[in-house]
């Protein structure tokens, strides 16, 4: 039931503050502020040196954020593949200690086949899944639930941000178990993660401004999405959301790759969406924004007050996001990208919840 919402996608975007809070509760004891694994699950991160992550679509982009989290907060090396490649890649897995799969449905054919491949190779497996009764949940050694509730819209929204929340909490937990994060820092991290629902609400409140930008986006045939560091996977996710539901051709790139090809596409007809909180990557991304502006590209910049005040270029459509510690930026910056795709699709008159050619659950290769 959509309730008072026009589409399931909109309802699911609005549910995010609540469901990311629930998901956090599975990984953090909210009374002590200590991280933990969900009830009944065990994984000893102190012994894990290398994780192989794989997933499809949005789950793959969540995994890419997960890789940044595990590497930065726990110093655990991560390999990452789309599941359709992992299952056939014949990668030597001797030094992998954990294979981690991310899936909303828990039924995606390639992800399931990758899980079976990893088990066949003798690896310990874990799955971040939203559907608790799914095949992937049944077959993985450890089940790490996202508590997003049923997701009906084909374009994943709340499952994605819940996956990010699970991965963030897990990476902090792994960092503690590996002796990389002190007990005091653990408390600071979990306090930060508890701010996510409020910040996501603040991001949702920007809907009106984003809708105005979506009206312009809907007149375009192409769009480029750029981000660096923690925001690189967000650029990929923003482009995927836009193409899935508005059918506008969109590509996501690591901002540093701009000069290696995509800059050739920039002219007055090419909108460039830049995800750039004022973090350690900001100055570098800002110089990419200048390169785009110098070639007449129209820039939509998602940043915070500090980023906006840096005055990188005039003539930029800036959406000012709340300020937050870097671990939260992927979760919170996902929201305006979802809203941009959603309102663009509405302008285009497409079927937002059931876009053409797509299925909610891809159970064949
Ligand atoms: O159920 P899963 O998370 O395994 O699904 C994976 C992809 O099919 C899915 O994320 C797809 O890319 C979505 N339509 C993205 O919005």
UniProtKB/TrEMBL annotation:
EC numbers: 2.6.1.16
Gene Ontology molecular-function annotations: carbohydrate derivative binding; glutamine-fructose-6-phosphate transaminase (isomerizing) activity
Species for this entry: Fulvimarina manganoxydans
Primary enzyme class: transferase
Function: Catalyzes the first step in hexosamine metabolism, converting fructose-6P into glucosamine-6P using glutamine as a nitrogen source.
GO cellular component: cytosol
Alphabetically ordered keywords of this record: Aminotransferase, Cytoplasm, Glutamine amidotransferase, Repeat, Transferase
Protein's UniProt name: Glutamine--fructose-6-phosphate aminotransferase [isomerizing]
Phylogenetic lineage: Bacteria, Pseudomonadati, Pseudomonadota, Alphaproteobacteria, Hyphomicrobiales
Signal peptide: none
Example of a GO biological process term: carbohydrate metabolic process
Main location, first listed in the record: cytoplasm
Domain SIS: 39-180, 213-355
Keyword Cytoplasm among UniProt keywords: yes
Catalytic activity: D-fructose 6-phosphate + L-glutamine = D-glucosamine 6-phosphate + L-glutamate
Residues of the full protein shown: 244 to 608 of 608
Subunit structure: Homodimer.
Keyword NADP attributed: no
Record-annotated active site: 360 (for fru-6p isomerization activity)
């Amino acid at each position: 039931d959509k309730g008072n919402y026009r589409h399931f996608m909109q309802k699911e975007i609005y549910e995010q503050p609540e469901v990311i809070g629930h998901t956090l509760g599975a990984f953090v004891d909210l009374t002590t502020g200590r991280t933990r694994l969900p009830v009944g699950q065990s994984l000893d991160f102190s012994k894990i040196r290398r994780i192989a992550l794989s997933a499809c679509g949005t789950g793959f982009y969540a995994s890419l954020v997960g890789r940044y989290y595990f590497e930065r907060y726990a110093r655990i090396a991560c390999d990452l593949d789309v599941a359709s490649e992992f299952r056939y890649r014949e990668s030597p897995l001797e030094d992998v200690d954990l294979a981690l799969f991310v899936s909303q449905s828990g039924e995606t054919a390639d992800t399931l086949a990758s899980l079976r491949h990893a088990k066949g190779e003798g690896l310990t497996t874990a799955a971040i899944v939203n559907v608790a009764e799914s095949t992937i949940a049944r077959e993985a050694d450890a089940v790490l639930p996202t508590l997003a509730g049923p997701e009906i819209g084909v374009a994943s929204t709340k499952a994605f941000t819940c996956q990010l929340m699970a991965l963030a909490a897990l990476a902090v937990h792994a960092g503690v178990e590996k002796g990389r994060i002190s007990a005091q820092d653990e408390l600071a991290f979990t306090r930060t993660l508890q701010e996510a629902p409020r910040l996501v609400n603040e991001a949702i409140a920007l809907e009106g401004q984003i809708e105005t930008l979506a009206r312009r986006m809907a007149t375009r045939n192409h769009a480029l999405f750029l981000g660096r560091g923690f925001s690189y996977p967000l650029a990929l996710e923003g482009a995927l959301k836009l193409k899935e539901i508005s059918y506008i051709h969109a590509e996501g790139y690591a901002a540093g790759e701009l000069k290696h090809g995509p800059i050739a596409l920039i002219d007055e007809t090419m909108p460039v969406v830049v995800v750039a909180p004022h973090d350690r990557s900001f100055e570098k991304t800002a110089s990419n924004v200048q390169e785009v502006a110098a070639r007449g590209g129209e820039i939509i910049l998602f940043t915070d007050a500090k980023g906006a005040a840096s005055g990188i270029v005039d003539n930029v459509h800036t959406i000012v996001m709340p300020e937050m510690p870097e671990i939260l930026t992927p979760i919170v910056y996902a929201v305006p990208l979802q809203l941009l795709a959603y309102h663009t699709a509405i302008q285009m008159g497409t079927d937002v919840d059931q876009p053409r050619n797509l299925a909610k659950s891809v159970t064949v290769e």
